[in-house]
Amino acid sequence: MPFPATRLRRLRATPALRDAVRETRVDAGDLLLPLFVHEEPGRAPIGAMPGVERLSVEEAVAEAQECARLGVAGVVLFGIPAKKDAEGSEAWAAGGIVQRAISSIKAHVPGLLVVADLCLCEYTDHGHCGVLCTTSAGLTTVDNDASLPLLARTAVAQATAGADIVAPSDMMDGRVGAIRAALDEAGFTDTPIMSYSSKFASAFYGPFREAADSTPQAGDRRGYQMDPANGDEAVRESLLDAAEGADILMVKPALPYLDVLWRVKEASRMPVCAYNVSGEYAMVKAAAAAGYIDERAVVLETLTAIRRAGADIVITYHAKDAALWLQ
């Protein structure tokens, strides 16, 4: 019935009624907190990301314990090794920083999900996501096929250390299939792959590169990460990863790509994760510090929008604060 018989404001009249008919909810159990683990003792602040720090293994365990106490679903681990080389060999070293962090967190907080980010950019001395080669035209680029065995080797090392999920973020073609085959051959048939299936070459990653010490020494990543203008290609990338064996798909970043998130969810009907990235976090923190916004209200609205667009899981640096506010 048209107005005046139909009045949608009736459903907004009281807080209890608004809550009862709310379509989208955010729970701490939907959230994953990124952690940057380094070889140094203690904690080191990250200038571009207030409230986020590089952590020793011991401090990463403490953060994981706090996440468990707050009901946050899990953590995503990024490693910052003491030494780097052209191949990124510390990524798969049995005693590598992420492998040690995985084992220690699982020993102390066994019920918490531990997701291992799977990429070489933090471990290579050139900062790219795979090994480099020179093309016939004299251009330096990432050698896609030569990088696949190294990524697969890293996945097995992470699973051996106890990772609940491996999450390839390199955007090499064919890497999900290579990782799935390597995990299965090593006996890790039950280890899921959460693929960064639609990872865009975004301007929103700047603070992360400071945090992870992963800025490319030359060039950029537009040759393998996605063009921000392309939505159809993002869906195609996601469906290809699903066909290769991905168990969860991811869209990164989140807020400028909510349309892509929706399309990937609708096309795949699979669990989908969205990464609320460092630049999005830093902007909220800066605006809140200046008094321009209410941080709590903006963060909870943002997480609700990401969930409404189709995300089953949200990776966010706000995870602990959001968990407290949601209580």
UniProtKB/TrEMBL annotation:
Gene3D superfamilies: Aldolase class I. GO terms for molecular function: porphobilinogen synthase activity. Keywords: Heme biosynthesis, Lyase, Porphyrin biosynthesis. InterPro entries: ALAD, ALAD_AS, Aldolase_TIM. Its EC number is 4.2.1.24. It catalyses: 2 5-aminolevulinate = porphobilinogen + 2 H2O + H(+). It comes from the Bacteria. Pathway: Porphyrin-containing compound metabolism; protoporphyrin-IX biosynthesis; coproporphyrinogen-III from 5-aminolevulinate: step 1/4. Pfam families: ALAD. Catalyzes an early step in the biosynthesis of tetrapyrroles. Binds two molecules of 5-aminolevulinate per subunit, each at a distinct site, and catalyzes their condensation to form porphobilinogen. PANTHER family: DELTA-AMINOLEVULINIC ACID DEHYDRATASE. Homooctamer. Belongs to the ALAD family. NCBIfam families: PRK09283.1. This is Delta-aminolevulinic acid dehydratase.
